[in-house]
Design goal:
It contains 3 helices and 5 strands. The protein is of the alpha+beta class and about 110 residues long. It has a domain of about 80 residues: Alpha-Beta Plaits, CATH 3.30.70.3270. Strands 2-3-5 form a 3-stranded antiparallel beta sheet. A two-stranded antiparallel sheet has the order 1-4. It holds the Pfam family Fer4_7. Keywords: 4Fe-4S, Cell membrane, Iron, Iron-sulfur, Membrane, Metal-binding, NAD, Quinone, Repeat, Translocase, Ubiquinone. InterPro entries: 4Fe4S_Fe-S-bd (IPR017896), 4Fe4S_Fe_S_CS (IPR017900), NADH_quinone_OxRdtase_chainI (IPR010226). One of its GO terms (cellular component) is membrane.
């Protein structure tokens, strides 16, 4: 056991190897994929984002002018943001915060054109 004293003393007086999340947040890495948001003013309800979404996390309801996005189904691949010709979808580098309940985000589009 005396051979462990050096390791024990080193661990007692060194900084912890992990961060105190959520008190200390790490900045996101370059090119990381995170939260997805819609700009309702740019969306033309073309349904391209819902069609290319591999996780089927996006549902458009043109008759009600609604976009329903389920962040728990989303795999944050960014295909919807790359496909949107109107640049209405933005993918931010910050990742989504954990959720305690399953809730979809609904964006209402008031003016769109066919």
């Amino acid at each position: 056991m005396p051979w462990m004293i050096g390791t024990v003393l080193k661990n007692l007086f060194s900084t912890p190897p992990t961060r105190r999340y959520p008190y200390e947040k790490r900045e996101s890495f370059a090119g990381s994929r995170g939260n997805i948001t819609w700009d309702a003013g740019r969306c033309d309800m073309c349904n391209d984002c819902a069609r290319v979404c591999p996780a089927r996390a996006i549902t458009l309801k043109p008759e009600k002018h609604l976009i329903e996005y389920d962040p728990l189904k989303c795999i944050y691949c960014g295909t919807c943001a790359e496909t949107c010709l109107q640049h209405a979808i933005t993918q931010h580098p910050l990742y989504a915060a954990p959720q305690a309940e399953h809730a979809s985000r609904i964006t209402e589009v008031h003016h769109y054109r066919y």
